[in-house]
Every structure is written in structure tokens, then in C-alpha cells.
Amino acid sequence: MKKVIMAFVSFVCLVNISSAQTRSLIPDLLKIVQNDGWKVVNRNASILNENGSPVIYFDSKQGDGFAKLENYEFNNGIIEVDLKGKDVQGSSFLGIAFRGVNDSTYDAIYFRPFNFLSKDSLRQNHSVQYISQPVYTWNKLRENNPGKYENKIVEAPNPNSFFHAKIIIKKHQITVFINNSIEPSLVVNELSGRTGGWIGLWVGNYSDGSFANLKITKED
């Protein structure tokens, strides 16, 4: 009987683990260049070689741009991705868009690598930003709630190298961790009333950027 019980427990554990694993998705970013399962808006996408590994690259254009994952609804969970911008003032904005409704209505967490290691403490505090388009833009949030929806990066990485972002989204709070830091770089409450929507890779006005290793884990 003991062996039967242990076997049953092992089976239950295996089912639970398998079920949890099926909730994680690792999209193929290289399919972005063929628009295979992705829709690219206001950007050209290409594949670059980064230390022997392929990464997806978006060119620079006026206005925001993104590649959104089609036929996938994201509500709550964890988004992880590697990103690479550049240390050029005002020309490097990149991150993750989520809870998207259309091409102009979505939330986003994005980064300004050119502020990561700035000697100006005020600029450092503008390194990671939350927005909710089209109502709560970065400039409106900064004007009305200075320092509330943006912050500096804990243990800021090289602005010209890849860094890892872990974004935890649980209605109504968003928490952002960078690299292996156990301290969050940003904790904010969501401003939109949306409970879900599309998810995508995002670059800002006149910005290019590279992305790799996107992983999405849904949670109830």
C-alpha cells in the first residue's frame, strides 16, 4: 500500500509540474522577420549575430514601433527578456509592451540605457519607465507624478551591452528586476483598467534595439 501511495503522489506531482510547464511560452523571435506569428508595426526587423547567437534587431524610425505576438492573450504573469540598447542620449528607448488593445492602446515597461550610468542622479532616476498609452504618456506621468512611475536601475548594467529584464505583472502591480538583483528597480500600480491583451517587443521614438530570449509565463 505504501508503494502505491508513493507512486500516486509522484504521479500527481508530475502532472502538476507538467501543467505548470505548459503555461510557459518561449516564442521564436527569429520568425519576426517573416511576420510568421508576429505583426511588426513601424519598424524593419532583421537578424543579427551576437557572440555567435542570433538576435532580433529593430531599426530606428520616427515614432514608437513594436512586434506583437499574434493569437496570444496575456493577462497576469512573468515576462523575461534580454535587451540591448545604446549609450546615446535621447536615442535608445526599448522594452516590453503588454495588455495591448490595438496599435495605439497598450501598457509598457521600457528602459533608457543612456541614463543607466549617468553622473547626473536625476537622469539615473529616469532609467526605467512605466507608461499606459495613449492616456498616461511618460511626459504626463513625469509632470503630474514625478519619480512615481520611473526609477534608476539597481546595479545598473553596461548601457551598450545586453541586460536581462524580469517583469512581474499581477493585477494591479508591476515589479521589474534587472539581471540577478534581488531588489526591484521599479514597483508601480497599473493605470489602465484592462485585464489582458497582446504582448510585444517595443522600441521608442527614433530608437533601434536588439532582443533575445523572450519567455512568457502565465499565471492565474
Explain how this protein is built.
The protein has helices at residues 2-21, 121-124, 138-144; strands spanning 24-25, 38-41, 45-50, 53-58, 65-69, 76-84, 94-100, 106-111, 128-133, 150-151, 163-170, 173-178, 186-189, 198-203, 209-219. The protein has a single domain (25-219), classed as Exo-inulinase, domain 1 (Jelly Rolls, Sandwich), CATH 2.60.120. It has 3 helices and 15 strands. Residues 1-22 have low confidence and may be disordered. The chain is mainly β and 220 residues long. The strands form 2 sheets. Strands 1, 3, 4, 6, 11, 12, 13 and 15 form an 8-stranded antiparallel sheet that branches.
Gist of the model:
The protein is mostly beta strands. The protein has helices at 2-21, 121-124, 138-144; strands at residues 24-25, 38-41, 45-50, 53-58, 65-69, 76-84, 94-100, 106-111, 128-133, 150-151, 163-170, 173-178, 186-189, 198-203, 209-219. It has one domain (25-219): Exo-inulinase, domain 1 (Jelly Rolls, Sandwich).
Write down the CATH class: Mainly Beta
Radius of gyration based on Cα positions: 19 Å
Overall domain count: 1
Main pleated-sheet profile: 8 strands, antiparallel
How far apart are the first and last residues' alpha carbons, in Å?
A: 36 Å
Any idea what the CATH architecture is?
Sandwich
Put simply, the count of helices is 3
* Helical content class: 10-25%
Number of strands: 15
Overall form: globular
CATH superfamily: Exo-inulinase, domain 1
| Overall mean pLDDT | 91
**Structural class designation:** mainly beta
Low-confidence stretches: 1-22
Q: SSE order in H/E notation?
A: HEEEEEEEEHEHEEEEEE
CATH topology, by name, is: Jelly Rolls
Strand content: 35-45%
